[in-house]
Hints:
The complex is a heterodimer of chains A (450) and B (160).
Chain A: H1 15-20, H2 26-31, H3 35-45, H4 57-62, E1 73-78, H5 88-94, H6 96-110, E2 114-119, H7 124-139, H8 147-151, E3 158-163, H9 173-180, E4 204-208, H10 209-221, H11 223-227, E5 237-244, E6 250-255, H12 260-267, E7 277-281, E8 290-291, H13 302-307, E9 316-321, H14 326-340, H15 346-363, H16 369-382, H17 390-404, H18 406-412, H19 428-431, H20 444-447
Parallel strand pairs in A: 1-2, 1-4, 2-3, 5-9
Antiparallel strand pairs in A: 5-6, 7-8, 7-9
Helix pairs in contact in A: 3-6, 6-10, 14-15, 14-17, 15-16, 15-17, 16-17, 17-18
Chain B: H1 7-18, H2 27-38, H3 43-53, H4 57-66, E1 78-83, H5 86-89, H6 93-104, E2 117-122, E3 134-136, E4 139-141, H7 146-159
Parallel strand pairs in B: 1-2
Antiparallel strand pairs in B: 1-3, 3-4
The structure holds flavin mononucleotide, iron/sulfur cluster and FE2/S2 (inorganic) cluster.
Amino acid sequence: MEKIVLPDIKDLHKLDVYKANDGYTAIKKALSQSTDDIIDQVKKSGLRGRGGAAFLAGLKWSFMPKTTDKPKYLCVNGDESEPGSFKDRQIFDFNPHQLIEGTLITCYAIGAKTAYVYIRGEYHKWIKLFQKALDDAYAAGFVGEKMKETFNTDFACEIYVHKGAGAYICGEESALMNSIEGQRGYPRIKPPFPAQNGLWGCPTTINNVETITNVPKIINNGWEWFSKIGEPKHPGTILFGISGHVNKPGVYELPSGTLLTDIIYKYAGGVPGDKKILCVIPGGSSMPPLIGTEIEGVKMDAESLKAAGSSIGTGGIIVMDEDTELVKVLARISKFYYHESCGQCTPCREGTSWLVRILDRIAKGNGSSHDLDMLINVASNIEGNTICALGEAAAWPVRFMITRFRDYFEERVQKEVTLPVKNKVHSMRETAFPIAPQTQSLSRADFKKD
Amino acid sequence: MEFKFTTENQEKIKDILKKYPTKKAAVMPVLYLGQEQNGWISKEVMIEIASVLEITEEEVFGVVTFYTMFFEKPMGKNHLQVCTNVSCMLRGGYEIYQQVKEKLGIDNMEVTEDQKFSLEEVECMGSCGTAPMMAVNEDYFEDLTAEKVNEIIESLKEKN
Ligand SMILES: Cc1cc2nc3c(=O)[nH]c(=O)nc-3n(C[C@H](O)[C@H](O)[C@H](O)COP(=O)(O)O)c2cc1C
Ligand code: SF4
Ligand code: FES
């Protein structure tokens, strides 16, 4: 099977190797066509976003206004912080130039002259690797003002790296824009949508790293070629990251629609000790978990997973064997979303805290069936009542895990499991609503100059 | 203690400012510079950044308190970050965390007396496929075992 995003070519991260493999020919080809043509090709290719919502990339680009006196921007989302996701870092590592080339083509298509690549702060190593590739591309005249000469065109575009600083919520597109603007990473109320009112109030498009990396191949090989790979409604390959209880965890690039069981058993080498599977989360920790006995025949693409009662998310598959303590898993997942809630919306800020407290009670062996109902109730009251989708991300694992594993949880509501978690909470709780344990060394009063 | 950026860092700030249309947008990269120079983000660092970027001190404070990677107190020379999120937990993340905690005798966000080590329990670091993991300052150590953790800490003790 041909790989699109992470081809098996040695040293592809080096500029000369990338160039020897048709590198920077797609941008040249794109620049000779109209921007409408490019958007049309990407639309017809059926490329859907790989950042979680699987939205049609070409359609998103077409929302950008054609005429505006404001500058336009592209944000490339490499925040990658969803537990179970570790795919974008492979692109920074092994194929950064294809991401750069895709960024250039996307900028040309939407009329942006500046792109920010937002990379999570913890990825120091991958930021350096990507920055090195970017510096090389600048020096070779593929990016920036020198493009005009290199490609004999009047289009030029700057690409900058913006380093995050440890906040999952900054992966949400509007929080990401606030973060680039130098603010707290608070998601914005939509509408207005980024294409109308994004970075500094200007038209902005946000796409995931993997989405953008597909673009050069679509331009070079044609939309028809791309649209025939994998499932017609969600074509192309997907970088599936598989972790947890499997023998060979890792990232596998496979056609969309690959069977979940094939990924687990054929590629990831099955479950250690040949144990049975209790539960699988198919798309990063916020997606509804599937019951282990019901994964036979489930295909990994947006439509199939929807039909199976979950979602493709970021393609991060977490496998749990039959001996897994699900109460602990759920409590840990809830703790994560509690920790990452930005604190703007009451249902999310308070709700995630309730979920954690109830789950902690159950984990301590002091739970009851009533607590299970209460968890579902709290989760249901977060969903749909918040500014951003972190609300759903926090609610889904709880609601679906308890509904789907009700008997399991009923049995364990009074069994003790230990769970030590205590870390800095970066939200309004610290400053305005101090319900979380105080871990800060400074208070606002301290800070004021005397 | 007063804080001023070194001339070298002042030059770097000039370069950073070229990337953004507003000065305020430079606050995160400039905070990283401040943290690098000072070791952590003190009140004085924030005051200096506010004046360099011509924004209010509250704006800087708001950013610092929001992001976990800006330290509001001095951390150890080797800042150990152990992930305990799901994928790591399924492969022994908590055991590693417990081991480091006991070996160093410190709890989450604490620093050893000799200032050599500090510990932080972190959320998913994007190493789920090579779990369990821990980062020391900027470097990732993956596919950890109890022995490996021991070796890493011992070699850090010897080194500095
Ligand atoms: C809480 C939250 C976290 C998110 N984190 C990421 C992320 O780390 N990376 C990413 O690409 N998209 C993330 N997204 C989705 C983005 O908001 C956005 O939809 C995506 O980057 C669009 O790119 P795509 O259309 O190419 O998928 C997140 C969304 C939410 C609600
Ligand atoms: S849903 Fe949660 S994370 Fe999203 S804006 Fe509201 S409080 Fe913040
Ligand atoms: S869960 Fe630990 S690195 Fe992802």
